[in-house]
Write a structure and sequence with these properties.
Blueprint: E1 12-13, E2 16-24, E3 28-35, E4 40-47, H1 49-52, H2 55-69, E5 79-85, E6 88-94, H3 101-107, H4 112-131, E7 144-146, E8 152-154, H5 170-173, E9 177-178, E10 191-192, H6 198-201, H7 208-224, H8 234-243, H9 259-265, H10 277-289, H11 299-304, H12 310-331, E11 342-346, E12 363-365, E13 371-376, E14 381-386, E15 393-394, E16 401-406, E17 412-417, E18 421-426, E19 433-437, E20 442-447, E21 452-457, E22 465-468, E23 475-476, E24 486-494, E25 500-507, E26 512-519, E27 525-530, E28 533-538, E29 542-547, E30 550-557, E31 562-571, E32 587-589, E33 595-597, E34 605-612, E35 617-619, E36 626-632, E37 638-645, E38 648-655, E39 660-663, E40 671-676, E41 682-687, E42 694-699, E43 707-708, E44 715-721, E45 727-734, E46 738-745, E47 751-756, E48 762-767, E49 773-778, E50 785-790, E51 798-799, E52 806-810, E53 816-821, E54 824-831, E55 837-838, E56 842-846, E57 850-851, E58 871-873, E59 879-886, E60 897-901, H13 903-912
Antiparallel strand pairs: 1-2, 2-3, 3-4, 4-6, 5-6, 7-8, 9-10, 11-60, 12-13, 13-14, 14-15, 16-17, 17-18, 18-19, 20-21, 21-22, 22-23, 24-25, 25-26, 26-27, 28-29, 29-30, 30-31, 32-33, 33-60, 34-35, 34-59, 36-37, 37-38, 38-39, 40-41, 41-42, 42-43, 44-45, 45-46, 46-47, 48-49, 49-50, 50-51, 52-53, ...
Helix pairs in contact: 4-7, 4-10, 7-9
Length: about 900
């Protein structure tokens, strides 16, 4: 390629500024560049005119770029976008520093202990792509880079070379691209000669097995320092690929365990070849860890112990074992005293209170019990605390983190992102990596020793799902038995050896739970506990599980999948995690006996109070209860409110004059978010009785039947009604865009449409009293702020809050807008008699015992997605109906978490004394 095309430093291609030339490839020149918008370095591949001006090649290039951009995997170099500026067409990619694998092999053959981790990461990259139907088609050492930290990045994934190789020298021949007119069609040759599969060399259609062949070639070359198939030119190389075998004697003696895998990868008949790259990944993992069924030892002893020394090592181990047995026999009559259980509590600052997801446990301990992970604050910031330290550290940039869980080695934290992703981040810190997209909200996860993750969601179309921790497409592990009334599989938890999986089966419309044990080796499945939930296996030979906010323990045989003896309660007043009767609690247990749990606060009841603009409080009702989302009728004589009754939420109306209350809903699925119709005759609310929360309506006096208003797989939460009763605005949790705003037209058709759908959370919409404006909160700036926009349509957008704002509410006369800021209620003067005008926010009052929204609550049960408004405004705008917490120990700091060291001793003592 002529250097005349080279772009000078400072040249701009869109927002990208050229820094310098990195190299020249088959499709163009690659430049180190600076992204001026995001202030990061990227690689920009400027396409040759022969490619950029060829419609067929450019179309294929664009198509393949779109395919690879759909993959988000730590071992695949990402594509950030395509640019077309000033007649220059370019591909913007992740800049990967470090040498290529070809550079590393050029120095010498790679030792087995270094080669296998590299090969495992390449296999993980291929597996992730194959799960999405994407084939690399040109895997070779030159397309693999190794960063300084050992991370492998596969480059040019799926991007076929389209430059005519005519004129290539013989020295370049074996590493030159061959021609293609279509990516995988029959009659086409594509790839690099030394790494092409036989069917590829013959011009036949290719599939993922061609990548498996190339993977075998790359692994062989790493271990030997020479190519598996060589020739003086392309023709000779292709002949070797089609008709010859690799020189198996070139493999080092240490690689004897790898040879069977290489033979399977390099079968010329693809029907006899290894069929899935995931199988190669598993075999390599077993070789590294020494967990293969053929009795192979861990990698390190294989590399450091000679064949001659093996019998000596075996004899030494046997002697050591005998000595240990004798020592145990002599001392067993007087065993050392076990350490006594030790308790301490962890109280979190008000600004860092636990971010309850209410879907599964919100706390997680590492296997060794040294680290505690949880999410905190209104942004659900991921936090890590070493138990020997006084303070936790936040994981920078990781918010919206729910239901954390840890890898068996404690090096990785897995979590659910509220925007619909299963993600992981290194315990040491860094950027989070997406493992998989998920549908529905989290219902727990467990990380298995084979580096796969089993997880559950609220999605009712499948049971438990399994995915590689390195990323990929989840597969269904368990299927719901609808004939038996199963409506969900939740809370998976694996035994330490990964052989047995415990999970909760929710049955019937009343959501009764059972605990089921599944042997992952045989597929045998057995119900072991009826009426329990969220079970975990203890290495003491027991399982613990939750019933009615209490943790119980019972003896368990993991081979027979049977419990024995009577269960005993081991922790009472456990904070609930999941509404209805599925049950669950906020707790985590380390492998060797440390327990952390979130207690149900003592007292913890709530009452409804009136608060005037100066902050003076007086009781609104005499009866305490676990109140949520109070809403006043238009005449201010009745209150619609959610009440939690022993872990289940239902809608009630309270008559303020008579002091009576009427129950509107009776289901065990959790009815919430009441909204009055303007005439006061009926109430719209949300219910999850059919899986996801949808909208329903019922008469406010409790008579008659309810009407279902929407049908959606997404969770929907009723929030605000237009003054004329013709439209409702609601929240909807969409898989790709998280919380959005929808609008329901209340006519005969009951049409539900998307209203505000952005790549941020939009919450708590409230229609103005004149029906012309919509106030809501959004985190598009990085924190929740209150905004106003025209309703039902219009492009104007006004930011009302400046220091953070949540849960807006209009004054009934339309002259003010209220919102919560921390533990304070703010007021903003507004005018909407034409264009919208607003003033500055001022504080009306603050109150530590007042609950402005569910995220600020420190006691009482937490309900799903605690981001809703917990106050309402009186018709004259002079008073506010609010929820006040009633603490039995007001002088004590609320206990956020309790840690018990050596807890297994306590469990064994309680079971022994039964």
């Amino acid at each position: 390629m002529s250097n005349e095309m080279a772009l000078g430093a400072g040249t701009r291609i869109g927002p990208y500024e050229i820094v310098g030339l990195l190299g020249v490839g088959g499709m163009g020149e690659v430049y180190r560049s600076r992204d001026t918008k995001l202030n990061r370095e990227v690689a920009v591949k400027v396409l040759l005119a022969a490619v950029a001006n060829d419609a067929e090649r450019l179309a294929r290039f664009s198509r393949e770029a779109q395919l690879i951009a759909s993959i988000n995997h730590p071992n695949i170099a990402q594509i950030h976008g395509l640019e077309d500026a000033g007649g220059i067409r370019a591909l913007v990619m992740e800049l990967v520093e470090g040498p290529t694998l070809a550079d590393r092999i050029a120095r010498e053959a790679i030792p087995l202990e270094e080669a296998l981790p590299i090969a495992k990461q390449i296999a993980e990259a291929l597996e992730a792509a194959h799960d999405l139907g994407i084939i690399h088609r040109d895997l070779k050492p030159a397309n693999v880079k190794i960063r300084a930290d050992g991370t492998v990045k596969v480059l040019d994934f799926g991007l076929a070379k389209v430059l005519d190789p005519a004129g290539a020298t013989s020295s370049e021949a074996a590493n030159s691209p061959t021609l293609s007119m279509q990516a995988t069609a029959a009659g086409v040759i594509l790839g690099t000669a030394a790494y092409m599969a036989p069917e590829q060399a013959r011009g036949k259609a290719v599939d993922k097995r061609a990548d498996i062949w190339a993977f075998g070639c790359v692994l062989f070359e790493m271990l030997t320092g020479t190519r598996a198939f060589q020739g003086d030119d392309i023709t000779d190389t292709i002949v070797a690929v089609v008709s010859k075998e690799p020189d198996w004697t070139a493999l080092p003696a240490s690689a004897s365990g790898v040879r069977p895998l290489l033979v399977r990868c390099l079968k010329k008949d693809r029907r006899q070849r290894l069929q899935a790259i995931g199988d190669a990944r598993i075999q390599i993992h077993e070789l590294i860890s020494g967990t293969s069924d053929d009795g192979a030892r861990p990698l390190a002893p294989v590399l450091t112990t000679s064949r001659r020394a093996a019998p000596v090592a075996v004899a030494a181990l046997a002697a050591a074992g005998m000595a240990a047995l004798v020592t145990w026999s002599l001392t067993r009559s007087a065993p050392p005293a076990s350490p006594a259980p030790t308790r301490f509590s962890i109280s979190l600052p008000a600004t860092e209170s636990l971010a309850y997801s209410y879907n599964a446990a919100d706390v997680a301990l590492s296997s060794d019990g040294r680290h505690l992970v949880y999410s905190a604050g209104p942004q659900a910031q991921l936090m890590v605390r070493a138990l020997d330290q006084l303070e936790a550290r936040s994981m920078p940039g990781i918010t919206n983190a729910r239901t954390p869980f840890l890898s068996p080695d404690g090096q990785w934290i897995g979590f659910f992102d509220r925007r619909g992703e299963l993600r992981k981040v290194s315990m040491a810190g860094g950027s989070a990596v997406t493992i998989s997209r998920v549908t529905g909200t989290s219902r727990g996860a467990t990380w298995l020793p084979d580096d796969t993750i089993v997880f559950a969601t609220s999605e009712r179309s499948s049971g438990l799902l399994r995915v590689a921790a390195g990323g990929g497409k989840p597969t269904e592990l368990t299927a719901l038995d609808s004939a038996s009334g199963e409506r969900g599989h939740y809370f998976p938890s694996a035994s330490p050896d990964g052989h047995v999986l415990l999970f909760t089966v929710a049955l019937g419309d009343v959501v009764d739970p059972n605990v089921v044990a599944l042997d992952l080796r045989t597929g045998r499945r057995k119900t072991i506990i009826r009426g329990g939930s969220q079970a975990k296996y203890l290495e003491t030979g027991h399982v613990v599980y939750v019933v009615a906010n209490t943790l119980w323990a019972v003896a368990f045989d993991p081979v027979k999948l049977e419990t024995s003896g009577d269960p005993v309660p081991v922790v009472e007043r456990l904070k609930a995690t999941f509404g209805g009767r599925v049950g669950g609690g906020n707790f985590s247990i380390s492998r060797h006996g440390t327990l952390v749990y979130v207690p149900q606060n003592e007292g913890g009841a709530r009452e409804l109070v009136w608060v005037d603009r100066s902050g003076t409080q007086e009781a609104a009702t005499a009866q305490p209860g676990f109140y949520y989302q109070p809403r006043l009728s238009r005449d201010s004589k009745r209150i619609a409110v959610t009440i939690d009754d022993q872990g289940n939420n239902d809608i009630f109306t309270l008559d303020l004059a008579r002091g009576t209350r009427t129950r509107l809903t009776f289901e065990a699925s959790g009815e919430m978010y009441p909204v009055w119709m303007p005439d006061g005759q009926s109430i719209i609310y949300s219910s999850a009785r059919n899986g996801s929360q949808n909208l329903y309506r019922r008469a406010s006096d409790g008579t008659g039947l309810e009407t279902r208003l929407t049908t959606s797989v997404n969770s929907q939460r009723s929030t605000s009604m237009s003054p004329d009763g013709t439209h409702m605005v609601f929240e909807e949790n969409a898989p790709k865009t998280a919380w959005d705003l929808g609008m329901l037209t209340l006519d005969g058709a009951m049409r539900a449409t998307s209203f505000v759908q952005l790549q941020f959370d939009e919450r708590n919409p409230e229609i103005s009293p004149d029906g012309r404006w919509l106030a809501y909160e959004s985190n598009e700036s990085g924190q929740e702020q209150v905004y106003v926009r025209p309703f039902p349509a219009g492009d104007a957008l006004f930011q009302i809050s400046s220091e953070g704002g949540r849960t807006p509410a209009w004054a009934p006369n339309g002259g003010e807008l209220f919102f919560a800021e921390g533990n304070s209620l703010m007021a903003v003067p507004v005018s909407s008699k034409g264009s919208f005008i607003h003033g500055n926010a001022t504080k009306l009052f603050e109150g530590l015992s007042l609950v402005f929204d569910a995220r600020a609550a420190s006691s009482g049960p937490k309900t799903p997605g605690g981001a809703y408004r917990m106050y309402d405004v009186s018709p004259d705008g002079k008073r506010f109906l609010m929820v006040r917490e009633v603490a039995s120990r007001p002088s004590s700091a609320p206990v956020s978490m309790v840690v018990v060291l050596n807890w297994f001793e306590e469990v064994k003592a309680k079971l022994t004394s039964q």
